[in-house]
Write a structure and sequence with these properties.
The protein is of the alpha/beta class and 310 residues long. Helices cover 35% and strands 16% of the residues. The protein has two domains: 5-98 and 284-301, 3-Layer(aba) Sandwich (Rossmann fold); 100-274, 3-Layer(aba) Sandwich (Rossmann fold), CATH 3.40.50.720. The structure holds NADP nicotinamide-adenine-dinucleotide phosphate. Residues 75-76, 96, 99, 103, 150-155, 173-175, 200-203, 206-207, 228-230, 254-255, 277, 279-280 line the site of NADP nicotinamide-adenine-dinucleotide phosphate.
Amino acid sequence: MVRPATLVLAPLPPAIHPLLEQQFHCLDATSPASLASALSSPQPIRALVGHGSTQVTPALLDQLPHLEIITLCGVGYDGIDLPACRARGIRLTNTPDVLTDDVADIATALVLMTSRRLVEANRFLHQNAWPNGPFPLASALRGNTAGILGLGRIGKAIATRLTALGMTIAYHSRNPQPVPHTYHPTLLELATESDFLILACPGGPATHHLVDAQILAALGPTGTLINIARGSVVDEPALIHALETNLIHNVGLDVFENEPHLPPALIDHPRAVLLPHVGSATTETRTAMGQLCLDNLNAHFAGQPLLTPV
Ligand code: NAP
C-alpha cells in the first residue's frame, strides 16, 4: 500500500515520530528550503503535521491541492486558516485534554515563582549573596484573587490548583458557567478585581491584544500578569511600558508575541519571570500528544471517526 505523503512542518515527539515515518511518507518541511523541496514532491500531499504554533496560511493551502487533513500536536490552532480549511473540506485535529494538567502546573508554578520571588531567590544563592544578609520578604498567596481569562479545560485545572493554595477564583469568558467562581462580564472588571490575572484563552483574531494598556492599568501596581495562553493575547509593548513604569508589579510568561524572539526590555527586566513555552513540555505529555496525532491520522485514512476533531 502507498503510504500517504505527509508534510511535516513540525516533527512529532521522539517516541512517536519513527512510527509516523513507518506509516506515512514523511516530507520534511521544517525549514524554508526543505518546505520548498517537499512542495515539489511528485506524490500528492494528503496530510500535514504541525504543532500548536504552526502557521498554515492561505498561500500554503493553495500549494496543497490534495490536502485532506491537518493534525496538530497542540491544543491551540490559531495559526490555521480555519475558514479556508472548512471551505475546502480539509479536516483539522488537535490534542486537547492530554496536556491540560501539565499546562496548569506551569501556570501555578508561575504564580508561585512571581509571588514568592523564587527566581530571584535562586539567583541570590548562585551569587553567594546570603552571607551579606537575608533574602527580602515576598508576598503570601492566600486570600489573593486569581482572575482567569478563559475558564476552559486548562483554566479549570488552574482554578483547582490555586483554590488548593488558598486563593479566591474569579473568571471572564464569553459565556458564564455553572461553577462556584465569580463571573465578570468584562475583562476590565476581572482585571480590576484580580491580584493575579491569568490568561488561559485561545489565541487568534478574537483575543488579539485583549490585554492592553487599559487592562494592565486596571490590574494595578500590586498586580501580576500570568500568560500561558498565547503571546498574541497581550500587547507586549504596553506590557513592557507597564512594567517599566510600575503600572503593574510583575509578570510570569510562558508565551510571547514573536516566539522564539523576545524583546530585550523583557529579557532584561528583573520583575519578569520568563519560560520558553514549556506548558506541555514533558516527555509523558508530549508522547501522549504525538500518539493522539498519529491515531487521528490513522483514523482518517482508515475511514473511521477522528478522535479529536476541531
Ligand atoms: P478550551 O477548553 O477551549 O478553553 C478556552 C476558554 O477560553 C473557554 O473557556 C472559552 O470560553 C474562553 N474563550 C474563548 N474565546 C474567548 C474570547 N474571545 N474571550 C474570552 N474568553 C474566550 O481550551 P484549553 O484546552 O483550556 O486551552 C486554552 C488555550 O491554552 C489554548 O487555546 C492555547 O492557546 C493555550 N495553550 C498553551 C499551552 C502552553 O504550552 N503554554 C499549551 C496548551 C494550550 P467561552 O467560549 O465561553 O468564551
